[in-house]
Amino acid sequence: MVAKPRILLFDPQDRFGKEMIRILGGIHFSVRLQDRADLLLRMMREFDPQVIVVGVGRADDAGHQMMRQLAKRQRGPGFAMIAVLAEASEALEVLAFEAGADSVLSAPFNRRALPLRLQTLTQRLALRLGAYRLEVGPLVVDRRDYSVQFAGMPVALGRREFELLYVLAKNPGKLFTRAELLENIVGHDAPHSTRTIDVHICNLREKLAPGLIHTFKGKGYQLRPEAALVMAS
Prior knowledge:
Blueprint: E1 6-10, H1 17-24, E2 30-34, H2 37-47, E3 51-56, H3 62-73, E4 80-85, H4 90-99, E5 103-106, H5 113-129, E6 133-136, E7 139-142, E8 147-150, E9 153-155, H6 159-170, E10 176-177, H7 178-186, H8 195-207, E11 213-216, E12 220-223, H9 225-232
């Protein structure tokens, strides 16, 4: 079964939320409504929305403040934001985009166009997320929140360990020299020895699985996806 796109509505002035639920609810979308700013972030963590729809009016109202807060918190393209304007206004539209909106709407809504617009946004988001979330067999590396899972279990990594694993997981089966890996995680001119890579590889093997990363003596390292599948089975 295909999961429904998750839409979270923030409507502090009770302007549009109920109408939007009537249009979007049912078989096509999973929709939740919140009118309190202090509860919205908790609902975000629990619901993990793909699109957040925010009601906005004046430049200093709760909607604009929340959009700016969400834009600052966001790491990577974790969700899209739509601003619902209290009235059709070019000035409000500009303010909404400046606050971080990906798209702007104004009521009343077109019952046929609204679901299509949200479907388009969620599809674009899925494409964007593909560059951030990597899956190699049982290994999942997610750059949105710098999290790693192996065989369904979370794995805590240091920042450099994560960056190294991300490079390897993005190119499974490719042989990297130590110098190439070092450049990817610390930059071209950084004064680090390539032996730093050996230390990080050793830590990754201990935290994930010994045979996941293969050593080519005198050459470098390679992530072996077939080994990951065997070790997780």
